[in-house]
Amino acid sequence: MFVNRLRLGMRLQSDPTVIYGLGAKFDGNLRKRDLEADTPYNTYTRDGLPPAPIGLPGQDALDAVANPPRSAYLYFVARGDGTSEFSTNLADPNRAVAKFQLGRR
Q: How many Cα neighbours within 13 Å face the side chain of 70?
């Protein structure tokens, strides 16, 4: 999914990179102001990859980057149970955020 975004020239817009950039300031609740805070790791405000990894990737992650599976997915939202919902358009992840992260139906 991130490879697809990069190929299209889209920003990654990945919450974990924002959280990493906030460091100790992150209190467990990601807010709009956090997404707008320009840190080197904020992939909402910066193009391309962050300046360094935000975690220690395992072999499976490295293999996936070297040989990404073909898909049309551009977005994903964590469901809160260890799985994610993937989509190809912006409307679907917006609904998924409301459902899985904001508790709306």
A: 0
User: 23: helix, coil or strand?
Assistant: helix
Chain centroid to Cα 102, Å, comes to: 17
- Contact (Cβ atoms closer than 8 angstroms) between residue 47 and residue 14: no
Q: What count of other Cβ atoms lies within 10 Å of the Cβ of residue 95? A: 15
**Tens digit of pLDDT at every position of the chain (105 positions):** 899 999 999 999 999 999 999 999 999 999 999 999 999 999 999 999 999 999 998 999 899 889 998 999 999 998 989 999 999 999 999 999 889 877 765
Are the C-beta atoms of 39 and 52 separated by less than 8 Å? no
Which tokens belong to 68?
Answer: 């990404």
* Rounded Cα gap, residues 29 and 89, in angstroms: 25
